[in-house]
Amino acid sequence: MKQLCTTILLCLMVVAGAYAQRTISGTVTDQSGEALIGATVAVKNTSVGAVTDVDGRYTIQVAKSDAILMFSYTGYATQEIAVGAGSVVDVTLVENANVMDEVVVIGYGKQIRSTLTGNIAKVNNENIKGMPVVSVEQAMQGQAAGVNIETVNGKVGAAARVRVRGVGSINAGTEPLFVVDGIPLSKDSRNTYGAGLNPLADINFNDIESIEVLKDASAKAIYGSRGSNGVVLITTKSGKSGKSQIELDLQYGFSQPTRKREFLNAAEYVELFTEAANNSDDIDGYAYDDPDSWTTFVQGRFFRYSGRNDDWMSKIDKTNWQDEAFQDASLYNANLSFSGGSDKMRYYFSANHGLNEGILVANHLTKDGARLNLDFSATDKLKMGVNLSVSRTNTRTVSDDNAFSTPMQLVALAPITPKRDENGELYDRPVTTYYNGLIDVEDATRKVYSNRTLVNVYGDYSFTQHLALRVEGAANLYNVRDEARFGVRTDAGNASNGFGESVFAGATDYNTNAVLRWNKTFDKNDLGFDLGTEYFESTNNRTSVFGEQFPTDELKTLASAAIITGGTSTEEQYSFLSYFGRARYNFDRKYLLNASARVDGSSRFGDNKRYAFFPAFSAGWVLSEEAVLQDNPTISFLKLRASWGQSGNADIGNFRALGLYAPGSYNGQSNYVPEQIANPDLTWEKSTEVDFGLDWGLFDNRLNGEIDYYIKNTNDLLQQVPIPATTGYKTQWRNIGELENRGWEFTVNSNNLVGEFKWTTSLNLALNKNKVVALADGQDIIDDGGTRYANVVKVGEPIGVFYGAEYAGVDPANGDAIWYTNATDGSDPRATTNDFSEANYVVLGSPLPDLIGGISNSFSWKGVSLDIRFQGQYGNEIHRSGDVFMSCNACWFDNQTRDQLDRWQNPGDVTNVPEARLGYSNGDIGRSSRYISDGSYLRLKNITLAYDVPTKWMRGVRSLRVYATATNLLTFTNYEGWDPEVTTDFLAGNTVYGIDFYSAPQPKTIIGGIRIGF
Amino acid sequence: MKKLKYILFAGILLIAGACDKKLDIEPLQSVSETVALDSDANVKLVLQGAYDNLSKDGMYGGNLFRDAELLGSDGEVRWVGTYSDPRDIFNHEMDAGNTDVENTWSIAYQTINSCNNVLSALDVVNVEDRDRVEGEAKFIRGVCYFELTRLFGKPYVAGGVNGQLGVPVITTATRGVTEASYVSRNTVNEGYEQALSDFLRAAATLPEDNGVLAGKYAAMGMAARMYLSMGKLEEAREMAVAVIGSTQYSLLPNYEDLWNQDDDTDEALFSIQVSPQDGVNELVTFFSIPEFGGRDGDIEIQSSHLALYDPADTRLALFYDGNGAMRTGKWKNQYKNIPIIRLAEMHLIAAECDARLDGNGAFQLNPVRERAGLAPLNQAFVEDVIQERRRELAFEGHKIHDIKRLSGTVDGLSFDAPELVFPIPAREIEVNKNLQQNEGY
């Protein structure tokens, strides 16, 4: 990658002029004397270049006797050598720990890190390769400062949420723009059944050379209307000229939940619910043995739940339903790659196959894919290439968190209930308290087949040494097919003799761009201009058909449905047309200036507001190049950066500005229903961001890092503003309000020990403070008013803050749940009340962390290496929304968590669990601090122990590594629920954070692997 | 080389220029407001959309009936489901955040807006259909205001001023959000007057037979129901008798045949259409069991209700034992129509008026009794008619409204207790400072 870049840069910079030619040859080796294959050799200030062959040899023509040769190779320091009079120049390149010379991918180009004026985090292949996770986001979790990544739950293939520098919007998208080899990919889930799956799961991250996250305005403004939430640039590997290299990586392992919760056993269940019924009888004045009493009612239920017998009386545990929700999960992955090429043509080919079983019963995913990346130098001036990948992911999904059929909701069933009846059939209601989700495991299929083809073709032509044009065309062909079939015993198929649905969702995206680059160096001045245009078009369609009345469960397709109950097809398109430019100037790599601008037009806006302009400016000053510091023994690098810029958020869905009627149907006829109230003034969300940064390096850059402070203001927020429902509409899209994210980011990289025993540490920390600055005029809060969840948008607070009644525990006198009144009328705010409606709502915590970060340590000694990476977050709260059912002091028949045994029983009892009262609400209201917990955690995200087996005695084997990796092995947290990395998957929206509603815990995975290179 | 450069530049510009038009993308699934109201055919589709809304779960798709039964349960039904919103309605412990209450409010006003849009565009409707379209829109709007006012306002007092707060009455179509969108509540009297005038206008303009859509007698039936609730007995009787006398409708011989039907029966004046293809029957969801497409049998019928029936009463046979409790057989198939108003109610209205005005309701009451296999009465007092209503119209959304009309009690609460009045939804109070909350919320 680096030599490619250097070549390009050289092509641009040099003046071609041919006089008398002379041939120089030589060998390029590393410090141990091994030949370096594919190292770049270039004649400085000319376009002449060569690449070393399999033996590290090169031959190059030079025109002048004072010519200087530049030798470069990825991971090694570039050397410049004057050719002098001789004809042989042999070079030994030294391994380079200097991150400042690293090449960084920027929007529509590349740059040396030391000349950057923006903030870009980079994650390299070696940091993600071989991780036993499904998606690229999971692989990079905790590795980039200020990039918060969260997998919503432990379902395999679950959506992963990425937030760069905080949550940047209230109603528009908050995901960064993902660009894979130049094509933007949507992160919208397209499956219909089960929880939304991560569409990027099919990207094989072992193919990724590097991931660059563009964080500040200067870096991302070139992406204009789509840059506001950051940009994640994913570059896949290219071949290197030289001998073919083959690598095979095989891994196999197991997963289990990070944690289980404790539930009541049969004896405790019978005891607690009998007590709850007695208490309710006391309230209603029933004798316990009265036929209409709660106690009689409960005993009737116990009889039912036991399978219509009196087994409950013996209090024997029949089923541990939590255990039934999980399975012993195994996984394997195989990854094969070939790469190599000549100086004319380079290739990288890979194929992968893997199976990941989820920790939830019947939840699994298989992945297959192949990639071919070709780069071809047609002439000295013309380079062409293609990146092509095909992949498919097949997932057997489970229902979303809110469905009775989802495995995690099995925990609600009673421990006195046997799993199966005497005929071996799974029990269902009325024996089970609710629908038995295991029936879905046996009698339902819900498969999601997704296929993706990504292709990117480019041509790069150098008109002169200063001017070049790169043209790219890319396509993303993505389709997802859902096949769901629910047998006659399942909840969904029960009343209809079986239910089936087939949904086909397709997305076809095209992206073309052309960028003209001009670059010139004169004296110490380096000046560059880029000018480009881009067009993106996306077409999304969906066709579905569903039917019921199947003759038998064995017939799976809708061909067997007696009644086709429905079917539809929809299509939507959107497009962007953009023009952009960038100017770069640096003097002596000391004073750096950068300006960029983009004009974006989109179909998503009305004619009047169709185009918008996004400028950015940035500057840098490399203090360490100043004379005062140049020879400083301690400070090896010091750079101050500052940037200002604007970017937009166009991820707002289509047609928001229009007044619309949607088609419906009634009585077998179609109709129109008012759907959306018009707002002709709707325009873009804009973020204005400033960033101040300091890049530093000490002791020859053995210790180096970055410090950044940023303020990002997003205004003209696109919001579905609540309007009186009496208008016939509940919301209107408007541009109102302002959101601010400000924070600090720190990265530190350290080569603690060099030599035979190596120890490196890298740390990243980010503090982000999110604040809703303003909503509509006079509006202080966006609150759906419900009492189940507590997230709101409130001025002065972080988005999605928990807002509800402050729980004061239990009145020791009578067992009532009590809340603080938090009165604002002058009476004592610390007074308590047992009437929830008398408790004023207050801010109870924020689901957004104050601090996120990761630290990794790598040790290596004689082929043995150990990598340990921790990841964590601090200062966020989680709402245990499901606990209003499972931790509600036996308010209804859901099995309770064991902590509910601490319930109040007698006057004087001091506890936080109110008296159990069946059928009565005693503190089981979700919108209360009773159900809010600290969600901070520190997690051993990844630990890998590897041994590079010496291969000298193995013929043909280049390398051999055996390794073991564990993810999520240890979690340190005070969270009472299953796992603190959680957000329920059935609710949507930017305020949906930190909600745990029967959400599957994250998997803990341990694998062993072997990686062989030939 | 220079030439190539210019050709390339020109090419890029051309492509870019052509692209600009590609930003003009229209929705394919929806139509714009102006299109929806610009032609006879489209306005009629908007009218169909008003029926669609009326059939939603928050309205006659189920909750209006369910909530009337839960709110007026009085020991006759028990809510045993896991959803807390209906449980709070059942326990008379609603709060302003109750999402089911909010849903009913929002859907009703969405329906009203559809009607107002239709009424605003009557001039593009073909002249020969204009009366019918107007009548249907007013029928639906009348239903919304009647139901909203009696749920969200304190009970109507017969003969009183009824200045207690009802709901905002809006009769113009929404085109944008303005100052005027932040409405205040009208009085119960104003809500009733609006609904009544809509029904009367609909009765005057609608054809006698209008298929499964609202016709003249549906509007007259609703007017009769309203008059009765307002204590206007003469008018109520006049309307009810006119419907009975129309000969277009008849009492079915078997009570059982009224329920779970694909097609409207001869007894139904107006029904919500439900089929496997569209519509919802939320009554089945809550009153029934999984076998019939219900949830978990969330509403159980208690013995105190069953005790109301004579053992010989054929209506008793409709109850069944499902999942360990008694259930009503009226709502037993998720894909079947929901009768909203039917002829038997007209008999009961006329009988009650007869009993109150003339002392004997037997003439209109006996057809209903006889159909249920009961002996005719020579003398039917008001109480006889009321008891018959409880049996005949059970679980059809009359319970709480009859209790309020008859100044009864529910679980010890007086008919005019604030607990029996829906709260104005919290989100609505939050958004519109001009709305006053009900007592007790």
Number of helices of chain A: 10
Arithmetic mean of pLDDT of chain B: 92
Element string of chain B (H = helix, E = strand):
HEHHHEHHHHHHEHEHEEEHHHHEEH
CATH fold-level label of one domain in chain A? Immunoglobulin-like
Quaternary: heterodimer
- Could you estimate the helical fraction of the residues of chain A in percent? under 10%
The chain-level mean pLDDT of chain A equals 89
What's the helix count of chain B?
A: 17
Q: What is the correct CATH architecture of chain B?
A: Alpha Horseshoe
Largest sheet, spatial ordering of strands of chain B: 2-4
The CATH class of one domain in chain A: Mainly Beta
Q: What fraction of residues of chain A sit in β-strands?
A: over 45%
Percent of residues in helices of chain B: 40-55%
Task: Give the terminus-to-terminus CA distance of chain A.
Answer: 21 Å
Query: How many distinct beta strands of chain A?
Result: 51
Radius of gyration of chain A: 31 Å
Class of secondary structure makeup of chain B = mainly alpha
Features:
A: 1014 residues; Immunoglobulin-like; five-stranded mixed sheet; 10 helices; disordered N terminus; B: 441 residues; mainly alpha; Serine Threonine Protein Phosphatase 5, Tetratricopeptide repeat; two-stranded antiparallel ribbon; 17 helices; 47% helix
Overview of the structural elements:
The complex is a heterodimer of chains A (1014) and B (441). Helix content of chain A is 7%, strand content 47%. Chain A is mostly beta strands and 1014 residues long. In chain A, a hairpin with a 2-residue loop joins β24 and β25 (525-548). Residues 1-19 of chain A have low confidence and may be disordered. Chain B has a single domain (34-431), classed as Serine Threonine Protein Phosphatase 5, Tetratricopeptide repeat (Alpha Horseshoe). Chain B is 47% helix and 6% strand. Chain B contains 17 helices and nine strands. Chain B has helices at 2-21, 33-36, 40-54, 63-71, 84-90, 99-120, 127-152, 188-205, 216-229, 233-244, 282-287, 303-306, 343-358, 362-371, 382-392, 399-405, 426-431; strands at 31-32, 77-79, 268-272, 299-301, 320-322, 325-327, 338-342, 409-410, 413-414. In chain B, the strands form four sheets. Chain B has a two-stranded antiparallel ribbon with strand order 2-4. In chain B, strands 3-7 form a two-stranded antiparallel ribbon. Chain B has a two-stranded antiparallel sheet with strand order 5-6. The interface between A and B is large, with 82 and 88 residues. β30 of chain A pairs antiparallel with β1 of chain B, so a sheet runs across the interface.
